[in-house]
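re: that complex we talked abt at group meeting.

here r the seqs, copy pasted straight from the sheet so there may be weird spacing, ignore it
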Amino acid sequence: MKKVIVFLMMMVMIVATFSGCGKKEEAVEGKYLRIAQEVDLPSMDQHVATDGLSFEVIAATIEGLYSVDKDGTFIPAIAKSYEVSEDQLTYTFTLRDDVKWSNGDAVTAADFVFSWRRLLSPEQASEYNFIGGVAGILNADKVVAGEVPGEELGVVAQDDTTLVVTLDRPVPYFLSLTAFSTFFPLNEKFVTEKGADYASSPENLLANGPYKMATWDKGYGFRLDKNPDYYDATNVTIAGLDYRVMKDNQTATLEYDSGNQDVVKLAAELVDKYKDNEEYTQIESGYLWYITPNNQTEVFSNVNVRKAFQHAINKQQIVDKILNDGSNVANFIIPIGLATGPDGKDFRESAGTYSEYDVALAQEYWTAAKAELGDTIEIEFLFDDDGTVKKTAEFIQAELETNLPGIKVSLKAQPKKNRLDLMTAGDYEVGITRWGPDYADPLTYLELYLTGATLNYPNYENAAYDVLVDDSGKGKLAGDAQGRWDAMIEAERIFLEDDAGITPLFQSGYAFLINPKVTGIESHAVGVPFIYKNVKIAD
Amino acid sequence: MLRYIGKRLLISIVTMFVILSLLFLLLEFMPGSPFNDEKLNEQQKELLYEKYGLNKPIHERFFIYTTNILKGDFGVSYTIEKNAPVSRMLETRMPISIRLGLQALVFGSLIGVVLASIAAVYKNSKWDTMTTIFAVIGISIPSYVFALGLSYFLGYKLTLAGYPIFPMTYNLYRPIQSSILPTVALSMFVIATVARFMRTELVEVLGSDYIMLAEAKGLTAKKVIFRHSIRNALIPVVTVLGPLTVGLMTGSLVIERIFGIPGIGDLLVTAISVNDFNVVIAISFFYSLFYIIMALFIDVIYGVIDPRIRVDKGGE
Amino acid sequence: MNQLDQKYDKKSFERILNNEDFQTDVVYKGISFWKDVNLRFRQNKGAVVGIIFILIIAFFAFLGPSMTTHTYRSKVDDHINLPARIQGIEKLGIFNGESNGINVYEVRGLDDVYYWFGTDTLGRDLWTRVWVGTRVSLYIAFLAVIIDMFIGMGYGLVSGYIGGRLDTFMQRIIEVLSGIPNLVIVTLFVIVLNPGIISISLALVITGWIGMSRVVRSQVLKLKELDFILASKTLGAKTSTLLVVDLLPNIFGQVIIMSMFSIPSAIFYESFLAFIGLGLQPPLASLGVLINDGYKSILVYPHIIVSPIIVLAILMVSFNLVADGMRDALDPKMKQQ
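got the structure back, here u go
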């Protein structure tokens, strides 16, 4: 018996020893915006990061040439102004001369050149290096492929405050990319000195923006303090941002309810409890969710089946009852608020809507389809093993079986990475997928469905569509703003109306609880998701 | 005995080797890559594979990895904490998981022993039934429901009522106070295990001749239980608790998610689902190591509890 | 020897009791082992209550779904998230369709609508879903016990009794199996196998028996050193006889407890498998899946999770009470007390 007691006492001692390893709490003063996050912060290195949270935090600490205001208009940041040459191929940026890194060094044009070369260098192997080609920077793709050295990239620091960028074709959305984290500057001396340790902890980071990183407890949270050296520091009114990783939405909400958090993302299931409250906020995102039928399979090569699908599902019900988070019904593929045309109007205002819910129409197409394919049609529906997606899939299954007599839908849940593998290989019949925009132009969606493209999950093939999209991208319409705009509107119409290539479902939104005292959180459907520079917290 | 332990340790090296190679092989078949599959083209993937040495043949990678482990290098994370050395990731997370696990073990065992003793002494009474029901409900209600319930009623409701005794979630800066609720939630399974297995064994022990002798000698019930019975009822409990302890120490996905604890249970599951191979291998490595040591420890402790048991004895 | 030769005089002893009754041996009627087990089991109140509850749940599992007009997959879009409401009982103030003091049915104008357990977030009847789910979970429970009994017990008996090198080898296999994260294996299963009962069974077979085999082994290690095994061996019993006739009955207590432990684990494991796409495919749901789904909205619509949890808890408590009763009834040593 004594041994047991000794054993237990030893255990208690071990426990006590470990208990001692908690961190000392630092006394912080001032008002912090406390944000609950569902995921860890994967990286603070802008050329390694690939996710929204990383981009958002990097953008809170580093500024680029341009920034975005709350309405999505591009406003000067480190660049004071820019000039475009007549052929739209050369951009000359004039930089402010009062911007400093947090180690005291000045931010110069050379910092941009270093950063952009680093982004595209094959050794860095950034997962976002395709964006150089998207931006049309001269030789970007060749640098990535290692065909030419980084020095031949079309970006030059003429002097400390003049940056000249040469493009290989007119790119109407080029300016929007300069507000994206990937294109932010880096201090060459600091980054080279830190080497592999760069961005691994607050000491290994530099800031030139409104905030700088103060603590980073991996997997637990991190804190950004106001950067006193920021050139616009007078307009930053809060003490900083305090992020906490909370993967369970319900406890995060409880923390919010008891006043320990200011910003919490709400799960669809919890919306009902809060949707009438003042703090309930819906934020639009650029993600488009859609049903992708594999056009190469026997059933879905039939255009009538695809059209019947487009009209048979009550999307409003999905948006209202299942998602319940501010998502909008999508009868299109280019999301609302993604891109503004030469006329200053949103793409959606100029383009039409397709694939609206209409059971009678759906059944008409369905009857036609059955005449060609036979009376009973069995399909297998592929989707991710994620809670909300699963519910959506169950709903769609029930909708299809109710509205399209004779169809039998079996559901196939798979881990996401496997779902992607199956779709890429074309080894599926029909499924749900989504796409988020990389840049503020309809092409980020339209290029997906080019014949033979890797991400052409529906395996869509249409020569006319290909021509329209190619022309408005790198082809002959590249310099003709209105012409390419019309071409893209037409391409979307062919894809959705004529061919029913996919069935759009909804443009996702996020439901948030935001403390009513907090104002000035700016959200964007494309690029940096949240900008916190102008946040104010009332007393 | 020492020779036996030495032999077992030698075998353990082989076992670890087998586990690692099997794991390497299995991960090879996982769908997708550790990188952002949706946005990357083949050329980019090649660059990344080149950068992380993933384009080498599997046996070569295995050799490099195992030799690196001997140097304490578990590679870098590809996805979760991009480019961070895995050893550094575990450095902060593992102590938290181990501490919570041990706390739950100690707390759960104490409560479990008490429940088991009550149940065994008052066998077939309503006390017995009640402890059984308590223990069974402890394992029938999934831990996430129980954990959220604790956080809701003891954390949230008490705070609202003006008694912020238990933080709703874990707090890195107040590790003791904020680990109470997670510890209780984690210990439910331990309580149930100890209570149930020990009761069964105690009932048997209490009915045996030597306990009757002790009773006949006039020892009190308490003395009978604590001096003579518990030790003899320990074998099944130790058998079940051993692997359970390893599981507790390597973190629980559910408890970590609900209480926002930066431990390795959640890390492992996330790593598997995003193909962060090095993290998966490193955590599995430590899990296996703990498990193997625990198995050895248990086999040795059998002999201590009941000297008649000789695991090191040869076969029949 | 002297003592034996001592003589005594019969007259020095006097008979003091002459009543014949004291000399009659009472011959009890012989009771067969199973009759005895049955008798002892029935005396155990807990076990009897457990049996009754299991029968009630089994009854509803078979007939419950046909008591309503709904099926487990039919959804009514206007009827989502309704709390429980039962005719008659609603007047007592419970099961009256109220949530936070508001009668949700009346607010939505559903006066004559009754869902006994309420509806879920898609507007499906929870009563039917819970009982259909109970069927699935009962099957999983059965499967878990079978796997425990055959694979786990067999493995443990052999490993513990034969011992030596074989034991060392068999235990290392267990270490290898435990060392590889289950999720890795299961993810690979998802790719290769089609979802369904067979896949669930296979996933359970991989590691579901390890706990049992360890418990059995530990018990065998202890028991095989005892005298009665030696006696049996000396009398020439074969190894198989030894294992089945001598060892098995003596480890039954722990075996029963262990198999009862593996039931809830298996039920929740199945819900996890369903989640990643290896279990039964929706809309078919087991108790575990229902609990999993209900958890997400527990703070808003607690009724969704309450019914499956209660059914599962009652089922588990009953199983365990019955198991305890069975253990006591089967234990030959308990007869003395």
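couple things i noticed - DSSP finds 18 helices and 21 strands in chain A. The mean pLDDT of chain A is 88.
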